Structures are given as structure tokens and as C-alpha cells.
Amino acid sequence: MPSKVKLRQVVLWVMATDFPLLYVSAVSLENAVFTTVTLAVMAAAVAVALYSY
For residues 42 and 35, what is the distance between their CA atoms, to the nearest angstrom? Predict the structure, then answer.
């Protein structure tokens, strides 16, 4: 199991890469499936963030 410090870094980078994807999927492409997938990735990152903090 990775340490909590490592998990915090992973969460930071996942969220940093997920925000532009979420914008593109919701605003530019307006693709419901892609938006749902990016929201699911963000939800998983939030769950890991809740654990690590």
C-alpha cells in the first residue's frame, strides 16, 4: 500500500489532468459517455483524497 504522502501526489495529478478532460467532454464535445467517465475518475480521486487526508 502506498503511503499517504504518495497518494496525495497521485490525487493531485489525477485531478489536474481530469479537469481539462472534463471541460472538453462537457463543453466542447458534449459527449455524455466521456463526461460520465471523467466524472467517475474524479469521484475515485475524491475517494482516495478523503482517505489520504
Answer: 11
